[in-house]
Amino acid sequence: MATKDIYYVPEGSKWPIFGSFALFVLFIGGALLFNGNANANFVLYLGIALVFYMFVGWFNDVIGESRSGKYSGQVDVSFRMGMGWFIFSEVMFFAAFFGALFYARMFSIPWLGGLGGGSATHEFLWSAFEASWPLSVTPDPTNFDQPKEVIPAFGVPGINTLILLTSGVTVTFAHWALKNNKRANLNIWLALTVILGFVFVYFQAEEYAHAYGDLNLKLSSGIYGSTFYMLTGFHGFHVTMGAIMLLVILLRTIKGHFSKKDHFAFEAVAWYWHFVDVVWLGLFIFVYWI
Amino acid sequence: MTSIFKKAIQAIFLVTLPISAFADWALNMREGVTPISQKVYDMHMVSLWVVTIIGIIVFGIMFWSIFHHRKSRGVKPAKFSHSTTVEIIWTAIPLLIIIGLAIPATKLLIEMDDTSETALTVKAVGYQWKWKYEYLEDDLTLYSNLDEKSVELSQRADDVDPMEYSDYLLNVDEPLVLPTNTKIRILTTANDVIHAWWVPDLGWKRDAIPGFINDNWAYINEPGTYRGQCAEICGKGHGYMPIVVKAVSMDDYKVWVAEKKQEQDEANAASSKTMTKEELMTKGEAVYKANCLACHQANGQGVKGVFPALAGSKIATQPENLKTHITHILYGKNLMPPFGEQLNDGDIAAVTTYERNAWGNDTGDVVQPGDIAAERK
Amino acid sequence: MSTLAHEHDHHHAPSGLKRWIFSTNHKDIGTLYLIFALMMFFIGGAMAMIIRAELFQPGLQFVDPQFYNSMVTVHALIMIFGAVMPAGVGLANWMIPLMIGAPDMALPRMNNMSFWILPFGFALLISTLFMNGGGPAGGWTMYPPLVLQLNDAFPFLIFTVHILGVSSIMGAINIIATVFNMRAPGMTLMKMPLFVWTWVITAFLLIASLPVLAGAVTMLLTDKYFGTSFFSAAGGGDPVLFQHIFWFFGHPEVYILALPAFGIVSTIIPTFARKPLFGYASMVYATASIAILSFFVWAHHMFTVGMPIKGELFFMYATMLIAVPTGVKVFNWMATMWKGAMTFEAPMLFSIAFVILFTIGGFSGLMLGITPVDFQYHDTYFVVAHFHYVLLTGAVFSLMAAAYYWLPKWTGYMYDEKLAKIHFWLSAIASNVLFFPQHFLGLAGMPRRIPDYNIQFADFNMISSIGGFAYGISQLLFVYIVIKCALGGKKAKAQAWEGAKGLEWTVPSPAPFHTFETPPKLTKAMLEN
Ligand code: HEA
Ligand code: HEA
Ligand code: CUA
Ligand SMILES: [Cu+2]
User: Fold this and answer.
1) Chain C: residue nearest B101 by CA?
2) Which residues of C touch A5 (CB under 8 A)?
3) What's the CATH number where C158 sits?
């Protein structure tokens, strides 16, 4: 059935509309939660469950089709392009938050402090405010949690950088092992990557607890806290997702899935992993370091 | 040019539609009353003419072609599909035109940006939905609300017709008085959401952004009354926060400042006097119309889900809530702005009394200025 | 030719409801998109009718100011995200595989999901109108702090934007993968029909801009509920920051609406001029330049926020520069008509009207781009006139043209040409009566987004409203024509139009359920564009 020149057009599937509905429920749940609705949690959890079920079901179909050899090389290329551009869209999502960070550092904080074009703003509205980064005292100090200290770059964040960079290397070793059909090595390197990923998340969580509890650095600590937590938070979320995806891949390699030629899912997850890695480098430099 | 254009358009519309042409048909931008507004107008006319001429040429060629190269005339289609020469030409010419427009625009922008050497500073602060003006050198503060007549006519009702009021929605109770022939610095900012301060005759508008101040200037040549509106959506009352500038000579301006200050002092002094219930109710109704009606509505019913009803409200009816009621007005809460700064004790006492007795809230309570003074921190 | 389109043995059209809701067929999904877009156009249009009715004369006639604001906001969101974008994606779905000789879209199941998210997304949005405090009312641009004053509708608005973003990004990825991976052998990039080109470039714009919007509204959400201060000066942020991020998305977005329109018109004009498109290569480069430039002009929507003068100058220059590549397109269309042998069926009429009226909209755009004068124009009806010229008489007219052009291919029947011409003339005249006077209103000083106005603006508003009602009613005719055509009429030939070029005209009309299951052999004549 799968010949090279006949493109595989899948039969109708229930997952797309099911998935749309699942997202719908999920978002209603989220919105109700924000509105303080009494049934919010139920709807939200139902939504999460539906989305999860959708993912499992949909990927099962795809894995099944892939393993029964229905996909031609052309389908594989489509998948690759899909994943590549999906990652690009994620990059642009992070770009919005990096943009906010740069804007705050280069424009709004200096202006509020009377630098650049902000002399009138400073003189008439915030005359007591001093521009600084990291921002320790917000323009209006009363309504915000002023952080006592910020997290130094070369403590835990430095270690986390090493962890992520190492995991980028291990996942590449795993890929080479796969290409050379060394299944044992593949599993070991992949397992190592997964472990490194979760260790990263663990350290990050510890660090959050420290910052929130001991340093009084919170989401509500003004723009520094806002950019800090939103950037590192979304990154941490992506690492968690990536680690879970790696875990799934690991389970599949253990089951003997993938061949030395045909392992798109593996590569897609590896790309994703490199992507979170690169984002982290940006974070490390601009959020923690300079 | 404009008049011919204007007449032509007028004629077309007048024959096609039976509309009472009572108002002057304003078709073009106003030239305004400052050197800058004049230049802005000129720049507008230049760009308008440039695009009009390009339009005539491009559409002219197209229509000629449509007419002559119709299949029904039996023409055979040509086969050509590109020509590097013409493509270069029609890339280069627009580029040159644009450079030609950009140069004067740059000059004008640089001129508008120069806020140095101003003689007077006014800070315009946008509120939902009014303007506050602070004359920084003269130490004078005004609040400028939509005028009462517009408020009445803007209610949705059968017996009102705005058509009879030529300044409908463009008039205020307290205009911003400014001297002519003076370079005035106008700072814009806002208290709650973004507004924009715009008087077309001055030639610019500028956003009023909470937490930031924008620096602008104006130099008015001629005395007169110039009207504008808030130009950034700021909620329900966005269409109801006009700006009126009254330009007078420097001497008249000085006299006005002195009078205004005296007036305010007297009002403040008088405001602590005890009033009768009738006095409080009449005054209260006026204060309510000017300050509260925009949100809580004329009938005190508010807007469901946004602004609470005052008719029958616990705060405005129960005796034990009187204190809360007063502090609520003085200091605001969430979307309700604080009024302590802009209304004096007499006004607040009056409006509180009014609220507690209007729309069936017949509590009989009488609140006196002293009660308000007691709550001020 | 029929061998290209023969039915494959084990794929036959599924029937009943399942055919539509589980569909993986690009034609069915395209049809769904188009029908959905038309419905949304009517809902958004009905809201516009409420706006125009309220503005018919001074004074408050029908609605409360708060509700007026939410009509304006939801009208814009529905028209942009519900009508024009889905209509464009619908056309892309139907036509791109046919034009490049592909059996279907590259990722058919994801394609189906892109579509099905839309009805759910708009259900979320429209439900807000019935909530405590009413629907979103801060304008489609959602500027804080105003938007943060919304009540229950707020999180629904944010999530609507998120979910629609997901749909569009998936749709865009699909188009890119289809075009780069599914072309029939011999269909090199520079041989692709221009419609395909404009859509790939649009897809890039979508992928690069929508995630940024998602980020922006996420910050709104955390500012409201989690105490962050991205958009509050008191905490070191800036309300204007939101505007920067929003317009970084927003300006490319307007080209997302415009580029497919360019593609449509570039397909139709050569057909009815019976002459190849003039300057194909320069059209491709011009489209690409417009797309690239569109990422560097965003702050022209924010000239009045008080940016440093260097920024204002930069954005002014970049904005004005866009007129050059757009001009190239206009001139190319003009040269395509030049010395052709033109006939004026409805698609051609709409296309010609597009060229003229879009250009008028572009002209006012150029005027808006001149910073010192924009200080006067900004947030007045002059801007409203500008963008309805490029959106309604631009994008929507091109969609009407496309619908008439390809209806024979979709339904197998010719539409009623006489009625279509009446529809055209009514639309063209009414839309100008509707929007041309708004230029005057803006210049005379009428701000936008106000429910009531001074009496000096009364006459033009009345004229504009009359034009609006006339335009609205005329669109009922369009629906009648489409339904009539779907039900029957004169049979359409495979090549429905005498001058039409391109692969889509080599398959029978209506196009069979499966086409190009084996890649077509392309002859030189087929690749001419
Ligand atoms: C399809 C959508 C679309 C398109 C294509 C455009 C095209 C353009 N737009 Fe428009 N615009 C909008 C949709 C669109 N716009 C919307 C929705 C808004 C309002 C958003 C809101 O606030 O709600 C807006 C607002 C808007 C503003 C902000 C106004 C304000 O709020 O103050 C500006 C300012 O620069 C602007 C400029 C331009 C320019 C320069 C172009 C150019 O691309 C036009 C280029 C075309 C031509 C110039 C014509 C053809 C050229 C020639 C024939 C060549 C020769 C010409 C010359 C040399 C002049 N637009
Ligand atoms: C693609 C985008 C698009 C389209 C197609 C339209 C189409 C129309 N628009 Fe809209 N509009 C916007 C995008 C669009 N608009 C945007 C982005 C804004 C800015 C919002 C903001 O400020 O935040 C805006 C704002 C806007 C305003 C300004 C409001 C204000 O600032 O206060 C007005 C006012 O006249 C208006 C009118 C119309 C009208 C009359 C149509 C008509 O063309 C609609 C015609 C269609 C129909 C009428 C539907 C079909 C017919 C029926 C339903 C049958 C019934 C008919 C009758 C009862 C007569 N629009
Ligand atoms: Cu204030 Cu609009
Ligand atoms: Cu723009």
Assistant:
1) C370
2) 518-519
3) 1.20.210.10
List Cα–Cα distances, C377 to A85, B71, C140, in angstroms. Answer: 39, 43, 19
User: Which pair of tokens denotes residue B323?
Assistant: 């204190």
Give the whole-angstrom CA distance, residue C288 versus residue B147: 53
Burial class (CB in 10 A: 0-12, 13-18, 19+), A38: exposed
Q: How far apart are CA B43 and CA A44, in angstroms?
A: 56
Q: In chain A, which residue's Cα lies nearest the Cα of C225?
A: A34
**pLDDT attached to residue C7:** 39
Total number of domains in chain A: 2
* CB-based contacts of B19, cutoff 8 Å, min separation 6: B13, C459, C462, C463
Q: The tokens of C296 are what?
A: 């560097």
Q: Answer whether C445's CB lies under 8 Å from B30's CB.
A: yes
List the helix and strand counts (H, then E) for chain C: 17, 0
- What is the pLDDT, as a whole number, of residue C1? 34
For residues C189-208, one letter each, b for 16 or more C-beta atoms within 10 angstroms of the residue's C-beta and e for the rest, the string is eebbbbbbbbbbbbbbbbbb
Q: What residue ranges do the domains of chain B occupy?
A: 2-113, 120-268, 272-375
CA C2 – CA C342 distance, rounded (Å):
30
> For an interface test with B, which of C455, C462, C501 has the most B Cβ atoms less than 10 Å from its Cβ?
C455
Q: Residues in chain B with pLDDT < 70?
A: 1-25
Q: Neighbouring chains of A at 3+ CB pairs within 8 Å?
A: B, C
Residues A135 and A41 in one domain: no
User: Is domain B272-375 classified as CATH 3.30.360.10?
Assistant: no
Residue C2 lies in a domain: no
A144 and A274 in a single domain? The answer is yes
The whole-angstrom separation of Cα C222 and Cα C484 is 50
Residues A242-270 pLDDT 10s: 999 999 999 988 888 888 888 888 999 99
Q: Around Cβ A180, how many Cβ atoms within 10 Å?
A: 11
Q: Name the token pair of C201.
A: 């470039």
In whole angstroms, give the CA distance from residue A122 to residue B187: 13
Q: Facing residues of B197 across strands?
A: B206
Tens digits of per-residue pLDDT, C108-163? 899 999 999 999 999 999 999 998 888 999 999 999 999 999 888 999 999 999 99
Global pTM reads 0.93
The pLDDT > 90 percentage for chain A reads: 51
Q: Is the four-CA dihedral B197, B199, B200, B201 of positive or negative sign?
A: negative
Can you list the residues of chain C whose pLDDT is less than 70? 1-14, 525-529
DSSP class of residue A140?
S
CA distance C101 to A172: 38
Chain C residues 310-339 with a CB less than 8 Å from chain B: 312-313, 316-317, 320-321, 323-324, 327-328, 330-331, 334-335, 337-339
Q: Is B198 helix (H, G, I), strand (E, B) or coil?
A: strand
Under 8 Å between Cβ of B210 and C426: no
Q: What is the pLDDT of residues A207-233, one digit of tens each?
A: 999 888 888 888 888 899 999 999 999
What is the ipTM score, two decimals? 0.92
